[in-house]
Specification:
- The structure holds 2 protein chains of 2 kinds.
- Chain A is mostly helical.
- Chain A has 4 helices and no strands.
- Chain A has 3 domains: about 1-30; about 35-60; about 65-105, no CATH class.
- By secondary structure, chain B is mainly α.
- Chain B folds into 2 domains: about 5-175, no CATH class; about 185-234, no CATH class.
- Helix content of chain B is about 70%, strand content about 0%.
- The radius of gyration of chain B is 18 Å and the shape is globular.
- The chains are: A mainly alpha, B mainly alpha.
- Chains A and B meet through helix 1, helix 2, helix 3 and helix 4 of A and helix 2, helix 3, helix 4, helix 5 and helix 6 of B.
Chain lengths: ~110, ~230
C-alpha cells in the first residue's frame, strides 16, 4: 500500500468534517421559518436521494459485483413491501439483505 | 454542560421501531469486514469509523487505499461524496440554536451529522423544548456513533466468516432503509419533488461527471423542487 493508513484516515475525517463545520458556521443567521431554510431542506433531501440513486445504479464496493438488474429488482420489491406494510421499516430492510444474498448467489 | 435527562431521551431513540440501528449496523459490519480485508488493524478501523462516521466516505477511503490513490485524491473524493452533509447541517442546526448553549458545543455536536441521526432529529425535534434540543441531539448522535463503532468492531472480527454473497447482502440494507425513509418523507409537493428529482438528476448527471453527480444533481433537483413547491403553495 502506497500511503500511510493513518494519514488516509485523517484526510478522510477532515474532508468529512469540513462540510459539517461550514454548515454550522453559515447557518448561524438562518431562521427556521425563512425561505433559505426551506430551500436547504429541499437540497438536503435531493442530495441524499441523488446519493442513494447513485449507490443503487452505479455502486462502489461489494454491490458493484451484482448485476444491475438484480439490484434494481430488490430495491423495487422492498419499496413495494414498505408501502403495503403501512410504512414498516423493518420488513423491507431485513428482506433486502436476504433477497440480494439469495439472488446474487444463484444468478 | 449537557442536560442528562434530554441526552438520555435522545440516546434511547435508537430503540424505537423505526430506528436506523439495523441499517446502520449492517452497513458498518460490512465496512469493518472491508477494513480488515484491505489490511487495516482493529485500532485503525475503530479510529476511522469514530472520526469519519459517514459510510460513503469510508467506502471511498477503502477503495482508494486498494488502488493506491494519493492523499490529495482521497481528500477530494471524500469531500465530494460527503459534501451532502453541508445542506443537511444547514437544514438542521437552526432548529437547535438557543442562546443558553455555548457556541463551541455546536461545532463539536456537528460531528454527529449523518443521515441516520439527522432523520431521527428531523422527525422528533418538535417534541423537545428548544433550550434542550442540542443535548437531545447529542444523545441521538452518541447512540448512533456507538452503534457504528460497535458494528465496525464486530464486522472486523467476523470478516473471515462472511462470504462474498453475505457482504453483498449487508451492503444493500443501508440504501434500502434510507430509500424507504425518503419515500416516507414525501409528504408535500416540495419534498416529493426533491426526492424524485434528486434520484433522477443524480443518475443523469453521472453521465456528465461521476464525481460531481451527487452535488450537481442534488443542487439542481433541490432548487427546482423548491421553486415548483413555492409556486404551488408547497
Amino acid at each position: 500500500m502506497a500511503i500511510n493508513i493513518l494519514l488516509a484516515i485523517l484526510a478522510t475525517s477532515f474532508a468529512t468534517y469540513i462540510s459539517r463545520f461550514l454548515g454550522v458556521l453559515t447557518s448561524k443567521k438562518i431562521k427556521e421559518t425563512s425561505k433559505v431554510f426551506k430551500w436547504f431542506d429541499c437540497l438536503a433531501y435531493s442530495t441524499l436521494s441523488a446519493l442513494l440513486a447513485k449507490i443503487v445504479i452505479f455502486p462502489a464496493g461489494a454491490l458493484a459485483e451484482v448485476d444491475y438488474f438484480i439490484r434494481f429488482i430488490v430495491v423495487l420489491i422492498c419499496l413495494v413491501i414498505f408501502l403495503i406494510s403501512k410504512k414498516n421499516f423493518v420488513y423491507p430492510t431485513v428482506l433486502s439483505a436476504l433477497l440480494l444474498t439469495l439472488l446474487s448467489s444463484n444468478f | 454542560m449537557i442536560n442528562t435527562k434530554f441526552f438520555l431521551k435522545g440516546f434511547f431513540c435508537i430503540k424505537s421501531v423505526n430506528s436506523p440501528a439495523i441499517a446502520l449496523a449492517a452497513g458498518f459490519i460490512a465496512i469493518g469486514a472491508l477494513f480488515k480485508s484491505i489490511g487495516l488493524n482493529i485500532q485503525e478501523s475503530i479510529f476511522s469509523t469514530f472520526l469519519t462516521y459517514a459510510m460513503p466516505g469510508s467506502l471511498i477511503m477503502a477503495e482508494s487505499l486498494i488502488v493506491g490513490a494519493s492523499l490529495l485524491n482521497i481528500f477530494f473524493a471524500v469531500w465530494l461524496v460527503n459534501a451532502r452533509l453541508y445542506p443537511m447541517t444547514v437544514s438542521l442546526f437552526p432548529l437547535l440554536t438557543h442562546k443558553s448553549q455555548p457556541r463551541l458545543k455546536y461545532y463539536l455536536a456537528c460531528h454527529f451529522v449523518a443521515v441516520s441521526a439527522w432523520l431521527i432529529m428531523k422527525e422528533n425535534y418538535k417534541s423537545v423544548e428548544r433550550k434542550y434540543r442540542l443535548d437531545y441531539w447529542i444523545g441521538i448522535g452518541v447512540a448512533n456513533l456507538s452503534v457504528a463503532v460497535i458494528a465496525t468492531v464486530f464486522g472486523f472480527f467476523i470478516a473471515d466468516y462472511l462470504s462474498k454473497d453475505m457482504m453483498i447482502g449487508l451492503a444493500i440494507v443501508n440504501p434500502v432503509y434510507f430509500i424507504c425513509v425518503m419515500v416516507g418523507a414525501m409528504k408535500t409537493i416540495q419534498m416529493s419533488l426533491a426526492v424524485i428529482l434528486g434520484s433522477l438528476f443524480g443518475i443523469l448527471f453521472y453521465f456528465i461527471s461521476p464525481e460531481w453527480c451527487i452535488l450537481f444533481g442534488g443542487l439542481t433537483a433541490g432548487t427546482l423542487a423548491f421553486f415548483i413547491g413555492e409556486i404551488n403553495g408547497n
